[in-house]
Amino acid sequence: MQIFNTSEKTTDIIQALLKDGGVIVKHQAPDELIDNVKAEFRAAFDREGHLFENDFNGYKTLRLSGILGLSRSAAELIAHPLVKDVADNILKRHCECYRIGSSTAIEILPGEADQVLHRDDDFYPIRIPDVEFQIAAMWALDDFTLENGATRVVPGSQDLREIEDVKASDITQAVMPKGSVLLYLGSTIHGGGANNSQAARSGLITTYSLGWLRQEENQYLTIPRKTVDSYPENIRRLLGYQSHGENLGVFPGDPDGNWYES
Ligand SMILES: O=C(O)CCC(=O)C(=O)O
């Protein structure tokens, strides 16, 4: 998996992502922004982060959903220009617009084991050859290291190999400094890493899915409407407040005017 720096061309980043199924781009968000996001998550992590514990998420991992209802600063990561450029390029090959599939803050605590390897898009019941249903952006809110559970990724696994066939030697880890982003395809096998350090490892993963697919996390019922309305149009669109073309998900007030004339 290739590692890029800020200065490199987006087309090269996209090419690497499509080739390897994942790519790291370092130093995309300033420390101050990352610290604000972390501060805005803190109380919610402490209050409700444990509610997501299960065999898949782990029992020493805190999680949060409904991110844009919890942190306004997170909007800057979710709608980051690089992520948008990459999503535009990969997803708009197959749709007119895309939306947030899910957005999840994840704090892996010391003592957590490896998460089960998985593909994010496996919950869609069919595949269409050569169509990526979604991409994901995992922001490092702390330095991601081998010891603290940097996301495990299987480069090339967008070839749809069986997850059971993955060998330890196929797995790499997204070691990256705080403020960097790991981009990966919905079809790429990955999972959280074991945290063998003494400190928590926090990240924010957002998936972006084709506009004609059902969103993984129902943003309409998760984020209060008043909060949605307080965001600018690009964020409202990402949350799903836009129709897909003239016929899917139309509603009064659609920003593209896809509603019946009265
Ligand atoms: O925490 C991580 O590094 C990855 C988590 C993940 O892939 C997931 O929960 O779907």
UniProtKB/TrEMBL annotation:
UniProt name for this protein: Phytanoyl-CoA dioxygenase family protein
Cross-referenced SUPFAM superfamilies: Clavaminate synthase-like (SSF51197)
Source taxon at top rank: Bacteria
Keyword Iron carried by entry: yes
A GO MF label: dioxygenase activity
The entry's keywords: Dioxygenase, Iron, Metal-binding, Oxidoreductase
UniProt KW Iron keyword: yes
Origin species: Thalassotalea nanhaiensis
